[in-house]
Amino acid sequence: MLWWVSYRNLTIPLTRPQVEAALQLYRYCELWRSVDEALDSLAQSFPSFDFKSTLLKVAAVNTFYWTQVYAVVEVAMHVHRILEATAVPLCPDVVESLGKIPQLGRMFRSFASKFAHFFIDPERFPIYDSYAVKMLTYHLNGKAKEELSYKQFVSSFTTLKKVVGFSVTTRELDRYLWLAGQYIAWKGLPPWRKPSTGINQELQRLFKAPGKEVQKLLGA
């Protein structure tokens, strides 16, 4: 399902200053930035999807982003089999294929989206997680969804990029959705119903920071 909206009737408005504030806050997150930079460096150092390279990439994404992949070798073999072809698929369906591990009997959609984002194409594959899904659907129609297929997520993500009225990259919007979702969940504001204590610890420290600049950015 695609939520067709225009900038004028976007249910929960999103402005460039809001995105800029999130990007400024991201600069305060040394651990988050270091993880992203490390994964980008790994992608540059190991551009292919031979099994050893794939194993390193799967282990890195799982370790740094806590994607709950406990059978790393089995998942790496699965990812390698899909991506060892000369032409890597660039459509959203590849994330569903990467995330569906037959021998484990469950879908690792968040892991697969992060793998595709960092190691296939960061612009084509936005990062899927529960905070991004809820914030994305909340902006588009005011009713936060708990889960989408990755194809639905990409369609909605692309729609939001088109209708906000300003230019924004996939990574910029990714960072806004996750950081804003964490902050709103921490505060217990809609679409969350009560404050959450389960958010990222680095962001918790940031949100509690007494500095005027951080608090100004959080209020943007």
What percent strand?
under 5%
Please outline the major beta sheet: 2 strands, antiparallel
How far apart are the first and last residues' alpha carbons, in Å?
Answer: 31 Å
The total tally of domains equals: 2
Q: How many helices? A: 11
Uncertain residue segments: 1-8
Q: How many E strands?
A: 2
Q: State the shape.
A: globular
Output the strand order for the largest sheet: 1-2
| Content-based structural category | mainly alpha
Radius of gyration: 18 Å
Give helix % range. 55-70%
Mean pLDDT: 90
Give the helices and strands as they follow along the chain. Answer: HHHHHEEHHHHHH
Walkthrough of the structure:
The chain is mainly α. The protein folds into two domains: 114 residues; 79 residues. 59% of the residues lie in helices and 2% in strands. Strands 1-2 form a two-stranded antiparallel sheet. Strand 1 and strand 2 form a beta hairpin. The chain is globular. The N terminus is likely disordered.
